[in-house]
Design goal:
The protein is mostly helical. It contains 18 helices and no strands. The relative contact order is 0.19.
């Protein structure tokens, strides 16, 4: 591993950073509205099962490659199978995927930055402002979306330029506990509302009559999308990990934290939605349009909405740190530039590349790619095509190409787990995980 990138100072730092990479738009924004559209409790239960059976093995696979080679994503694939250099394209695709993901993820992050500022000043909940009109004005006004994009990009550049321990690790050690603390406060407040138990029942009581084939596929996709696996971000993160750290224990902690945040998100949102007779199937607008309406009808609603928006901002930032880091780490190895210079350069390039997506609801609203806006087309390419493909290639690589003894040694090193755990992991990677990912990928292609 290049010493330019450093190491995590502790196992906790690594776990919080990995959890931060996973907990973002998927867990807090997408999962609640997809759960609402797919019948509630049954969908959440299936999501949890797939996270354990599919997401956890994929998470372990990226950890094995990163910690085993002590190298960033591109170099890791070269090192683990030196005679088959073509597999390094998995790492290169991950770097490209992270860059493309940042071009629209940063736009949403900018919206959240703007909303957080308005929430703190009490401007989101206003009797004279319709939440739907406010959201439309924010995404439809070029200078506002670009300002948000600048702020979100600067926040990432500052943290990533400080390095692994002083930047990413320290930021996550503050942000992740605050995220959980704010979630607890919001959940307690939501559960004390009149009618809140109807929302709890909807979210947790499994009613399988609403589960369709599409809902199953959504749950499968969410299980590995929600853990940030597929673009080799966690290959890079785990390359900064010491050899005496247990990979199974670390992966288990990250999965538990991710599922817990998803659970908290449901308990913070659905009781509020049902308490005020709102629609749980509202889709992506649930956060920006429905929740402000709900919070406006409760005592101290401005305070709780501001907390929720700040929480969402923290989660979005901790995820974007991992996207920046995989790119920075790859090019530090290749170009031998200083971390600060490279991060600043990357920030400028990401900002410029994200401008078309930022203007997709305003100046470039009439520009379409296969019937989609630039923002939606980029989202579809990354989320529905590149990410499932990345997961499939990593699964095939770790199960059928990498030496079995290397995998076993790294998986069990520093762990109390034995042969039985390795055997279970290997059979999941050989058969179950690739088949499930192929089903998800084919479904996404059929929807195109």
């Amino acid at each position: 591993m290049s010493q330019k990138n450093g190491q995590w100072s502790s196992k906790l730092g690594f776990i919080l950073a990995s959890a931060g990479a996973a907990i973002g738009l998927g867990a807090i924004w997408k999962l609640p509205y997809v759960t609402g559209q797919s019948g509630g409790g049954a969908f959440f239960l299936i999501f949890v099962l797939f996270t354990l059976l599919i997401g956890l093995p994929m998470l372990l696979s990226e950890y094995i490659l990163g910690r085993g080679t002590q190298s960033e994503a591109v170099t890791a694939y070269k090192k683990v199978v030196p005679t088959k250099q073509g597999w390094a394209w998995i790492g290169r695709m991950g770097v490209l995927g992270c860059f493309l993901l940042l071009t629209f993820y940063s736009v949403v992050g900018g919206w959240i930055f703007i909303y957080s500022g308005l929430g703190v000043t009490g401007s989101v909940i206003n009797p004279t402002v319709n939440p739907s009109d406010l959201f439309g004005n924010i995404i439809g006004t070029p200078w506002i979306t670009l300002l948000g994009l600048v702020l979100f990009t600067l926040a990432n550049v500052v943290v990533i330029s400080l390095g692994v321990q002083n930047g990413i690790e320290k930021a996550n050690k503050w942000m992740m506990p605050l995220l959980f603390l704010m979630f607890v406060v919001l959940v307690v407040r939501a559960l004390t509302l009149d009618g809140a138990m109807e929302g709890v029942k909807f979210f947790l009581w499994p009613d399988f009559t609403h589960i369709t084939g599409k809902a199953l596929l959504e749950a499968l996709g969410q299980s590995f999308f929600g853990l940030a696996v597929g673009f080799s971000c966690l290959v890079t993160y785990s390359s900064y990990l010491k050899k005496d750290v247990s990979l199974p224990n670390s992966a288990r902690s990250v999965v538990m934290l991710t599922v817990l945040v998803s659970f908290f998100a449901g308990l913070a949102i659905f009781p509020v939605v049902f308490a005020f007779d709102l629609e749980p199937t509202a889709g992506p607008g649930l956060l920006f349009m429905v929740l402000p309406t709900a919070f406006s009808q409760m005592p101290f609603g401005e305070v709780f909405l501001a907390m929720f928006l700040l929480l969402f901002l923290f989660a979005t930032l901790t995820s974007s740190f991992s996207l920046y880091e995989i790119i920075v780490a790859a090019f530090i190895e290749k170009w031998h530039m200083s971390r600060t210079s490279l991060t600043m350069l990357l920030g400028v390039v990401v900002f410029i590349a994200a401008i078309p997506s930022a203007l997709s609801s305003s100046l470039l609203a009439d520009v379409s790619i296969f019937g989609k806006t630039i923002f939606d087309a980029t989202d579809f390419l990354v989320s529905n095509l590149m990410l499932p493909l990345g997961n499939l290639l990593i699964a095939i690589f770790i199960a059928y190409v990498v030496d079995k003894e290397f995998v076993k040694k790294e998986l069990l090193m520093g762990s109390q787990m034995g042969q039985g755990f390795f055997t279970t992991y290997r059979w999941l990677m050989l058969i179950v995980v690739p088949l499930v990912i192929i089903v998800v990928l084919l479904n996404m292609l059929l929807q195109f």
